[in-house]
Design goal:
It is a single chain. The chain is α/β, with parallel strands linked by helices. It contains 12 helices and 14 strands. It has a single domain, classed as Alpha-Beta Barrel (TIM Barrel), CATH 3.20.20.370. The strands form 3 sheets. Strands 6, 7, 8, 9, 12, 13 and 14 form a 7-stranded mixed sheet that branches. Strands 1, 2, 5, 10 and 11 form a 5-stranded parallel sheet that branches.
């Protein structure tokens, strides 16, 4: 059984405090992981606008105890308090991650802007977000990034097409069930997509029947597939903070099951993109998350319907218009 741990780092505090805490646990448990870090400013405070746009956002904030999880400094960042840099604020820590054997990829530039405005940015705006993010990565590492993870699993046809022009080893933008190539507007894109296959902890926190650590761990163990890669996305702000011990216990339970841990770049290197299935990209509502995510749809030319885990079942929504 194979599991890849994908760590999304959205905020200044998540990189400053959450990442070192996660690294300590991962190294103690001898587990590698792939880190995806927002390259630009931490504008987390601007997410308050989702109260008026995303049904369920307030409920999620209350259920996950957002103030206690993120802290007032992050909650007000970019509004009442100045936005602080994420990756560019800690270049030495970024380089240390790679030196210690972890993969480091790009998690967008301005996380909140991508999440909230991707369908309003247009080609110039999305291109600028990508160029700024990849330039920041190059400034830190003096080499180009090979991987990208879309903030909040949000993509449209424009962003996927622009990413496809960048010659990446892979991206991990979507929710889904297996590595594949994206079919967008009748065009098969070349870049391999390795989707997140398991629900995230913040989607499960406070769910009835999953209110204690043991129940959460048993829930995740029950979702594992022996016949496919299991990709579990965690967040530096959550598993690297108040839920650090839950994450440690989950790793130990996975190891007790005989799980083999892999970095996402190692997975991508062994998969020839031409051999991966071609699937549509759809939008879906995910239980426990406010607003839509982009998701792996049915296989091209087949009758395979969109399949999700029990906790991820939602309504399909149309993908944004194709580039050009």
């Amino acid at each position: 059984m194979e599991v890849a741990i994908k760590v999304d780092v959205d905020t200044h505090e998540g990189l400053k405090s959450g990442v070192p805490a996660l690294v300590r646990v991962l190294e103690q448990e001898r587990v590698s992981a792939s880190f995806f870090v927002a390259m630009g400013p931490d504008n987390s405070g601007k997410a308050v606008r989702r109260l008026f746009r995303n049904r369920g956002f307030l409920g999620k904030m209350l259920r996950t105890r957002a103030i206690a999880t993120y802290g007032w400094r992050t909650v007000l960042s970019g509004t009442l308090l100045p936005a602080r840099p994420v990756a560019l604020g800690f270049p030495d820590l970024m380089r240390e991650l790679r030196q210690r054997g972890f993969e480091v990829g790009v998690h967008g530039y301005d996380h909140v802007r991508w999440h909230d405005e991707i369908d309003r940015l247009g080609e110039p705006g999305i291109r600028a977000e990508l160029e700024d993010a990849f330039e920041a990565y190059r400034a830190i590492f003096d080499k180009p990034a090979q991987s990208f993870a879309a903030p909040a699993w949000r993509d449209n046809a424009l962003s996927l097409a622009l990413l496809d022009q960048m010659g990446l080893l892979y991206h991990s933008d979507l929710r889904g069930r297996t590595p594949f190539r994206c079919l967008v507007g009748g065009r098969v894109l070349a870049t391999l997509e390795i989707p997140t296959t398991l629900p995230t902890l913040d989607e499960m926190l406070g769910t009835r029947g999953l209110r204690d650590r043991r129940a959460l761990i048993e829930f995740y163990l029950g979702l594992l597939r022996a016949d496919a890669l299991n990709v579990h996305t965690i967040h530096a702000e959550i598993e690297g903070g108040t839920c650090l011990e839950v994450f440690r216990d989950l790793l130990r339970a996975l190891k007790a099951r005989g799980v083999r841990f892999s970095r996402l770049d190692a997975v991508a290197q062994r998969i020839a993109p031409q051999s991966a299935p071609v699937c549509e990209v759809v939008r879906s509502l995910v239980a426990g998350r406010a607003g839509w995510v982009a998701m792996q749809g049915g296989e091209a030319g087949g009758a395979t319907a969109l399949q999700t885990e029990v906790s991820q079942r939602g309504a399909q929504l149309p993908l944004a218009p194709v580039l050009g």
